[in-house]
Structure formats: C-alpha cells, structure tokens
Batch of 2 targets.
Target 1
Amino acid sequence: MKKISVPTVVIVIIILVVRATAPALTPALLPSGAPASAPLFGPIVAAILLLSAGGDNPQPCFQEEGGCAMPTPQSRIAIVIDDEERWRSIIVEELQKVGYTVHSCPTFCDYPGATVIVVDAQDPSRAVVGPGYVKTLRLSHPQAFIVGLSAALELIQPGASVSIRAQFTLAGTNLNLDKNDFDNREFRALLPT
C-alpha cells in the first residue's frame, strides 16, 4: 500500500475544499487562457502535488517486531554478515548496546540506510567472499563504516597474492578486526558516534 505524507494529504484537502467552496477563486489559479470551467483542474493539481511531494516514491520499509519502522535521518542501522551464528549474535548484541537496529544474515544481505556494516571474510565452505561483499556494499553505502572480521586476517590463501586483511582494505573497509583478539568494549569504542 502506498504511503503518502501528512503534509501532502493536507495540501490536497485544502485544494479540494477551496475548489468546492469557492469556485470564484478557481479561474485566478488557472493558467492564462484556460477556460474557467476546466473540470479536471482539481484532480490534476492534486496529482502534481502528490508526485512532487514524493507520494509516488515511498521510502523503504524495515520489518520490525510489531510492524514496520520507517528509517529516519537519525536512524542507526547496522548489517552483520557472518556464517557463524555465535559471532553474529556477539556482534549484534554489541551494536544493539550502542543503539543500532541490526539486521544479520549468514550470507550476503543488504538494507537501505545502513551506517555500519560488519562482514566476515569466509563463508561456510571457507571461501573468502567477504571482500567481494564489501565491494558490493561500498557501492550502495558509500558513507557507511564497514568492518572486516576474520579469524585469519593475515592468511594468504592459495591463489591470492595478498592477505585477507589487505583484500578487505582494498575492497573498502574502514576497520579490520581479528576474531582471535576481539574485545567487546574496544569494538564498541571504535564505532562511529
């Protein structure tokens, strides 16, 4: 269902009320040379206002418990991508402690408006997919703070010329953290405020 902003509805109602109660005002609002009896004037103006106010371009909706929450400029939305349930829950909990609404998934996912994104390096097959995810997410979230996470940041896998840390950095992470040295308080302190 299309959501229309309250100001748009108010403007449309005002136009319709003026049109119905003060027909003498209508000719003054018409473009010069238009007949005063133009029957579609009200609906055309209403449609123009709806389109210009964004009524035809609704904001994305994030499913939350108990309904749908619309993002606001002050929203703190985070994405956590890690195939390990234990690590996903640790990162989600830490982000929630500092006020983020967190969306987590075991494989690639994306949510509009994310300001922090945490990406694990490897998928369940141990293939290094995280840097590729980071490249894709960096395109849709150029201002996001992206964290690369791995238990093997210094590992250079067969066929690769650089470490996982370097792959993450080249892909566009702002920070790379080693799961083996992970500190909850330090992680929270490193997040943008």
Target 2
Amino acid sequence: MHASAAQTQTGVLLGIGDSVMSGAGLGRGRLTFIAIAADKIKRRLALTVFAADGEPCSQHVQRFPEEAAHFDASAANNVVVISCGHNDILHAGRGAKGVAAALSSIRTLCTDYHRAGWKVVVETRQKIVPAIDLVDQISFNTQLAKNFRAYNCDAISDIWRDGHLGENGNPGDPTYYEGDQVHPNERGQALWATYTAKAIDSVLH
C-alpha cells in the first residue's frame, strides 16, 4: 500500500516499512502504528507512507531518489521513520548473511535520508518466531540498537525491548498479535505507536 497526504508548512512524517506499517491483518478503518503516532506527536506533520506486504528495505534503497523527490528537502521538520528488515533477512537467508544484508540496507537508507536533510528514526522489529530464527532476530535487533547512530540515525524506536512485542514477548499471544504470529493486531499497533511517537518527538525542534 502506498498512501499519502498533502504536505503542510510544518513538515512531513514519512513512514517507510513493510506489511506491519501497511496494516496487514487489521480490519478496515483500523489505524497502523505510524498513523497513531502521527496523532500523538507534539507537532503536526503531514503523514506519507511507503509500505507494502513483503517489501524489504533494499527495495526502498533502490527507490530512494524517486521516493525522496516527492518532498521539500529544505523543510526543518521532515522526519522519516524506517521500520523494516524482516523481509531482507527472509530474502537473503538465515544466519549472519541475512542479518548483515538487512543491516546494510537499513544503514544505506538511513544515510541517504540523513544526507538529504531529514531527521531519521529507525526501529527495531517485533518478535516473529518461528518465521525467523530467534538467534537472527536477537542479532539483528541488538546490533541495530547498538549502532543506530553510526547508521546516521537521530533516534531509535526500540520495539525489541518491549515486554509484549519484543524479545520477551509471545507472538502467539492474541492480546497483541494476529493469528499469523507475525503482525500486531489493533492493540499491538497502539502499543508500538507509543515507542514511535516518543522517538519522533525527540528529534523535532
């Protein structure tokens, strides 16, 4: 899904992600975490989302010139939230190779937006065992949380630390997950949004 809203003078909130950000599994009219976060933050920003089911970060790297060209790079409060990586691991394969591929794509995308003048928020991801080996998820998320500033990110929304969606969570818990044990349900999306909104607020003037 590629949904967009017109810009306002205050800036843009751009969400780049995959099926979680596009709302897979949610019923019609239910808000994704990025939409909920947009309503929570202290400054009004026009929300645009580039996200689709199964989409890896590497595709957004390839489309960066096209996607970034939609916006005025001189705006002081343009914020991009980059929330992807699972599909990169799935495409590249299990183990260190897949983790390295995912982190490389995220680092490139964060750097591209940083150099274009955006405030960059990156996110660790939710637990989705058994879809991806737990050891790979631990490696990916801990490395991203440790090195996000070296990736030219201004802030991190660390979902992996959450007790329900992160490392100690249970994807089989219907309180926060859809039945596929991958996608957060409405309550899970709302919980996720609290992390996203806090990170966005931390980079706004």
